[in-house]
Write a structure and sequence with these properties.
about 325 residues, alpha/beta, TIM Barrel, about 35% helix, globular, binds ligand PBG
């Protein structure tokens, strides 16, 4: 029998613990590093002045009036974040979500305030109908075979108008999230014909129908009043190849950045999309439920929010996300300094 103490290629010659023994060695060989520049902070905006209305389901986050959103943007810029993404909560909702397309809509007002306060900060807007429609669906409803369904092609027109209006109000990047077929192409065409060939699109290309959006829907009062979103958002049990098809189609339609959402329960999908589309920047949305479940457990003393958050976000980045949308964006920037 060979002398175990000199066996090459295996234990005890090889000991992987040697590089884990102190922080200096661990830091030296770390591969995945979170950086504030990769993080986008979601903000909810509503009408008014000086208003910060706490969102019970998203502890630490508020529905903000445009002036307060501007204050947050100033902070985000100071912290070196990658950007903010705005979600509007209009005073009035109707069947087509008119506020979303109005130049005096809530997101348009907030955009002007935000760009004024923090001109260097990337201002992203979510392009969808669900926060603006009285029925809470992501598009126009039609009667079809005894049930109401979202009319894909009629919705495209609304999304194009919303994007052009956001662009005019100062958006630096528009992010369609409604999972309509052809939404990226329709928005690209509308922006181009409005002379905005320069404005990039970050598509929520791979968006699953998920229970993890619960706190967001409370924040934005956007839960569908009837039915669910399974007719347009993806099924968690569908083939991973479908995610790659969705992403590739959106790239072909002109998407500049591809997003996977949610993040934590879909790390395999982030990796597959990353590998299938070399050179295409990939974003992942660490959604409201991912934030709230950790915050809630931490409130009970069951885990440490900072370490659990950093571990989750590190995993999302390691899986292949270049950009991460997260409710912890400001916290991470502070924790890392
Ligand atoms: C709008 C939209 C939603 C989220 C982002 N954009 C809600 C939904 O699809 O129901 C969810 C974000 C989150 O949960 O943090 N369509």
């Amino acid at each position: 029998m060979a002398d175990q103490s000199t066996t090459p290629g295996t234990f005890p010659t090889v000991r992987l613990r040697r590089l884990r023994q102190n922080p200096a060695l661990r830091r030296l060989i770390a591969e995945t590093t979170l950086e504030p520049r990769r993080l986008i902070l979601p903000l909810f905006v509503r009408s008014g002045q000086g208003k910060r209305e706490p969102i019970a389901s998203l502890p630490g986050h508020c529905r903000l009036s445009p002036d307060m959103a501007a204050e947050e943007a100033r902070q985000a810029q100071r912290l070196g974040l990658g950007g903010i993404i705005l979600f509007g909560i209009p005073d009035e909702k109707d069947d087509v979500g008119s506020d979303a397309m109005s130049d005096s809509g809530i997101v348009q007002q907030a955009l002007r305030a935000v760009k004024d306060a923090a001109p260097e900060l990337l201002a992203v807007t979510d392009i969808c109908c669900c926060e603006y429609t009285d029925h809470g669906h992501c598009g126009v409803l039609v009667q079809r075979g005894g049930r109401r369904d979202v009319d894909n092609d009629a919705t495209l027109d609304l999304l194009g108008r919303q994007a052009v209006s956001h662009a005019a109000a100062g958006a630096d990047l528009v992010a369609p999230s409604g999972m309509m077929d052809g939404m990226v192409g329709a928005i690209r065409r509308e922006l181009d014909s409005a002379g905005r060939t320069d404005l990039p699109i970050m598509s929520y290309a791979v968006k699953y129908s998920s229970a993890f959006y619960g706190p967001f829907r409370e924040a934005a009062a956007s839960a569908p009043s009837e039915g669910d979103r399974r007719g347009y958002q993806m099924d968690a049990a569908s083939a991973a190849g479908q995610a790659v098809r969705e992403a590739s189609l959106d790239v072909a339609e002109g998407a500049d950045i591809i997003m996977v959402k949610p993040a934590l329960a879909y790390l395999d999908i982030v990796r597959q999309v990353r590998d299938a589309l070399p050179g295409v920047p990939i974003a992942a949305y660490s959604v409201s439920g991912e934030y709230s479940m950790i915050q809630a457990a931490a409130e009970r003393g069951w885990l440490d929010a900072q370490s659990a958050a950093l571990e989750s976000l590190t995993a999302i980045h390691r899986a292949g996300a270049d950009v991460i949308l997260t409710y912890w964006a400001k916290d991470v920037a502070k924790w890392l300094t």
